[in-house]
Amino acid sequence: MSRIELSLNPSPRAVAIADRVESFVRDVVVPYERDPRRDHHGAPLDELVYEMREHARAAGVLTPHILADGSHMTQRETALVLIKSGLSPLGPLACNTMAPDEGNMYLLGHKATEEQKDHFLKPLVEGRARSAFFMTEPSDDNGAGSDPSMMLTTCRQDGNHWVINGRKTFITGADGASVGIVMAKAEDGGACMFLVDLPDPAIRIDDVPNTIDSSMPGSHATVTIDNLRVPASQMLGEPGDGFKYAQVRLSPARLSHCMRWLGCCIRAHEIASDYACRRMAFGKALIEHEGVGFMLAENLIDIKQAELMIDWCAGVLDTGSLGTTESSMAKVAVSEALMRIADRCVQVMGGTGVTDKTIVEQVFREVRAFRIYDGPTEVHKWSLAKKVRRDWREAQA
Amino acid sequence: MSRIELSLNPSPRAVAIADRVESFVRDVVVPYERDPRRDHHGAPLDELVYEMREHARAAGVLTPHILADGSHMTQRETALVLIKSGLSPLGPLACNTMAPDEGNMYLLGHKATEEQKDHFLKPLVEGRARSAFFMTEPSDDNGAGSDPSMMLTTCRQDGNHWVINGRKTFITGADGASVGIVMAKAEDGGACMFLVDLPDPAIRIDDVPNTIDSSMPGSHATVTIDNLRVPASQMLGEPGDGFKYAQVRLSPARLSHCMRWLGCCIRAHEIASDYACRRMAFGKALIEHEGVGFMLAENLIDIKQAELMIDWCAGVLDTGSLGTTESSMAKVAVSEALMRIADRCVQVMGGTGVTDKTIVEQVFREVRAFRIYDGPTEVHKWSLAKKVRRDWREAQA
Amino acid sequence: MSRIELSLNPSPRAVAIADRVESFVRDVVVPYERDPRRDHHGAPLDELVYEMREHARAAGVLTPHILADGSHMTQRETALVLIKSGLSPLGPLACNTMAPDEGNMYLLGHKATEEQKDHFLKPLVEGRARSAFFMTEPSDDNGAGSDPSMMLTTCRQDGNHWVINGRKTFITGADGASVGIVMAKAEDGGACMFLVDLPDPAIRIDDVPNTIDSSMPGSHATVTIDNLRVPASQMLGEPGDGFKYAQVRLSPARLSHCMRWLGCCIRAHEIASDYACRRMAFGKALIEHEGVGFMLAENLIDIKQAELMIDWCAGVLDTGSLGTTESSMAKVAVSEALMRIADRCVQVMGGTGVTDKTIVEQVFREVRAFRIYDGPTEVHKWSLAKKVRRDWREAQA
Amino acid sequence: MSRIELSLNPSPRAVAIADRVESFVRDVVVPYERDPRRDHHGAPLDELVYEMREHARAAGVLTPHILADGSHMTQRETALVLIKSGLSPLGPLACNTMAPDEGNMYLLGHKATEEQKDHFLKPLVEGRARSAFFMTEPSDDNGAGSDPSMMLTTCRQDGNHWVINGRKTFITGADGASVGIVMAKAEDGGACMFLVDLPDPAIRIDDVPNTIDSSMPGSHATVTIDNLRVPASQMLGEPGDGFKYAQVRLSPARLSHCMRWLGCCIRAHEIASDYACRRMAFGKALIEHEGVGFMLAENLIDIKQAELMIDWCAGVLDTGSLGTTESSMAKVAVSEALMRIADRCVQVMGGTGVTDKTIVEQVFREVRAFRIYDGPTEVHKWSLAKKVRRDWREAQA
């Protein structure tokens, strides 16, 4: 099987780590893809996750994007490492570079107090716990959906505690998480974030629906928060700054999805290319049929473009910019490109492509979901159109 | 919820039956969509299927496209009825209009002897049995795949019997079927078809893979046929005519998939439209956002075009033509249109669209598989291109 | 060269006329495609048009869709005839089935008084004059554009006359027309339509811009109407009914564009197919390259779908319906399909495709413009989305 | 009007020059866009070109990508400068960065002897002459087209001269050029390149067809070469190395088209954005309609991706690689992206978009042609598919 070479070269340090991650994922994680330990949604069981992490720890590739001193690699370095960790759908779980933990660690690394880091961040970085980010609200309540201004969950101060009430949905990994970050609106309309030990009886898991994707332990729960009491010391940062912190987490988390799923699509492309080169149809190798070969050619181009968009957006984030526009552009471009790639891989492989004999079928399903989470394509285009208008107005002034 | 009206009007008889089928599916079958009786591939259990068929029998909509005298409706009539039966993914199972039974009944109705009909066809028409069509071969053997000329399964005469050996794959419904139609190549290179009672120890189910779709009982098995002995009286038609009979079944079966899945996509569109009309985002109903409303507008167009292509192709078949070119055109156009429709429905519904809270998520997965079975898009384009060339040559002559 | 066969068969009468039209266009009109008589916008000179019409008259194919008694063929009959007349970009001019005359004749045939018909309609039907429809207004005035409610042109009654003032743009054929239909808003906000002899000094042609298309004599003028006085007897129908009459003309006129340009695209496809079958590249005929053959296969499908949409929409109009929704659906589907067809034809022919050595290059340019006139794609999708919402609301009630 | 900012930052030197070029093009060249001096194909007359070059010389932006010592900027530097020169379709002519001169100067700069440079290259660099590259052959002869191995033009040695015979087509700028580079096949099958003073009676211009594009002086001629005698000293490099030299020119020339047309599409996007922000429809600014705003959002993404692909490919060329694969990827990705951008700009501007009131209409036509020249999309995909297969084979070994 021939491997896709990336052009990314952010630093010797990152290249060295990324190489180790790639070897680990290809040699150690890939065989786990056939491991049957999954829950009834198809998501990997924690038992499987923690077993793989033992190997990652031994191989020196656990949480590879966070350095020994607790600082994070640059985003451009992270890109290279996370793409490589994504070469298997299990790779990010094995290496502890998976959402939502990766984004949560990023946020806590930047905004938590030392005490909060000790208690909430340390077990995450060590790969011994999972976390969840409680922001999205159910659409049947006319709650937030893709529109955060519609947040209905409330928090009110009661002595030295805050009391939180509301409903949250699509809370990835809530079922089984030890660490929660909960967002709520205070009486003055400002948003607050709280760190919570999980499970907590005041956060009731109402439903964990079956979804088209199946890579995330705990799947995507809907929960009711019913008079959850949190000590004031567990507020993250300052009251009223919740949306600001969500922004800090937003672009890097969005971009890290692009990285991991690009890795998966690269692998799917390798599998489909291998299939097309081996399998004969109508008297010649499948790939010699232009109808098939052109799809693989288009994959090469889409992979490269996804890689370049990620690297560019990561570079913008590395300047200290929030990168809201840039990460919207990258999210749309990359998620749509990955959908095309995954779809072509399925098509190239014909009947085999729709079975779970390879990861191609799963990658297709995962990427379909990715086009919706962290903002559906349409929401990003909407905010990009607003930016075009804003720039025009400023140029008029 | 607003319903899509079709323009099809092939005959008063068909309209009346289609109306009954529609009411039955919407009122009786749709509630079964939440019935948990599924196998571990997600496919409906036979128990569930036969329970629904009792209702269909009572409602006079069981096997509605085959008339009391055993004759079939015209293809244009069938189209209207099968689209309506498809308004739920369970509808064709409940009404006994599902693949592969529908195509197998068609073939037996046209080519079987009276004795064969009595034994093999009757229980199918009465909705008391399932069947399977053993044609496709595994690609890892470099077997037939999409290319029937590569068939490796053999049959040789031995006294008053035929002995069949080979491997078959993607045999929908083989697991649990009572009736099999097996295709094999004789020593002289001619293809033969045989009718077989199932299960038979000489047909060993090696594997039933998980696949992206989950609507077909028995899923898609890979089997080994090991010295299967079949009495000569169970050969369908004449030796050497196997490919010809496959052709007879081919276009109608291909087209009937288009019909059923169009039904499903119409329903998915109704669900997505309802969602978009109810749900608010950024201060107005989702559908008032052009980004959403345009997707639903595009669905209207794609639905209409799918309907017209099906009706046109059905009309060609009704003239007695094999309709190979026309059914290739229809299959490509309809399956690709349905993919766009299903994809838009998922996207319109955002997070809800990727859960199994509605059938939209399943329809998306089913249609993805449909783009491959009964000939992937690329194989049909290939044969259409050949036709362009053939026509050109004839015009030169 | 191989010809595309249509499935349309609306009536023996129409088939017979369409056959005559097809022979005429292929045999007599096609050679005129190399005739150099064009204006500096590339549009055919009237001299050329009237010469071709002499041949059409002789061949009995002049204004073939209007019967001897002045009545019009049904829309389904018209479809077949107009598609055939469109097999050359010059065909509709030669046969007098071209926009805007065809739509104007339709409107006058349905709404004009006998006196008005005698004076304004007769020379049009006889192919001795051209006409123009003055509705669209310039966007730099923030006039009507695609939004008729923004109409700024006014008419006010002055004794037995009306006085009209305003500016109009993209008035196809105004330069050189003998008959004008002018739309304006009365003081009470109602819209009126007037018939006008042209040229008239009160209608000043300000500008005839170069445009990407070049099939319409007189091109698309911007005019100023400066105190144009029209006798009250030249009002079409009743005051205030202008928008209603525009609706009468709207759907058939929109659909007739689909018909003519489908004809052109069929011819472009025949040319490209012929090229691909003759020309060798990399050791085989171009069409044997799937990259090329698939494009021609996709053309076959798009042509069929365009044909079916036109026939369906025409059938709706033939029931007496205004067909606003249906003609929006048809216009979007057909114009976008024709763009894909024309684009593929250019691409298949490589360098030759971008020269004027064949009509393919012109057809590509014409179809690009067609995606905008008679309502850009986006305006139609917008009104289709409104319809989805309206239907939903009615179903709620 | 708001300007698109690029992310490219190859060197301070290039940024400074690019800024000067941008100011020059926007301030001095853009007003020339309405200058009527065009030939009957719509291409700018040399008189107009040379007048603009006087201004460019004065502004220090003539041939800005070639340094005072005759060396070329790096490709990444060139990219930034050429994109800026492309902000007007006339910009590359004014700045002397236009095809085919730019590619010809590149080839001569790398492969010509000092004597050849003095005679043939110097006037080009000084912007006093135009050149042409005689490679492509007519398809009606079954000549080279996109397939160079089919070259039919011959050269044979005759004493101290070579004698060349053949036909060439799509020879951009041949009409009016002073310098020609002619490719031909020697008797031993090796390809040779020759430098020729033009015009020469032995190179007869048979035809200069009208084409869809109109930016290149001299358009695209078909010529007959009839016993052209060239002194051996005018051979470029070594006999038999013609294809090798064509390769040297190929990737940079292909990429420089991407650069210039990206510049044009950026400008078209600025014009369309400005239009959409100013113009009202249905009660709000056009851009506030998502149907329009989303198109501009998609443009932002496509522009960024085109920019990144160009920069990446330029970087590969700067390592000394031939960049055949990379420039194929870039050519496909960029030309297809630019087509989408140009098409959206036309659509956003409605009726105005299809007139020559802005450059948008021309840009659309130019980009259509660009998808064919320097290798149609399909030829590049074909060679990319071959590379996938080659890589796979090597990985097997």
TrEMBL record, chains A, B, C, D:
Ranges where the Acyl-CoA dehydrogenase/oxidase C-terminal domain occurs: 240-387
A biological-process GO annotation: fatty acid beta-oxidation using acyl-CoA dehydrogenase
Residues in Acyl-CoA oxidase/dehydrogenase middle domain copies: 132-210
Superkingdom assignment: Bacteria
Cofactor entry: FAD
Alphabetized GO MF terms: acyl-CoA dehydrogenase activity; flavin adenine dinucleotide binding
Oxidoreductase recorded as keyword: yes
Subunit structure: Homodimer.
Protein family according to the UniProt entry: Belongs to the acyl-CoA dehydrogenase family.
Protein name (Swiss-Prot/TrEMBL): Acyl-CoA dehydrogenase family protein
Source organism of the structure: Novosphingobium ginsenosidimutans
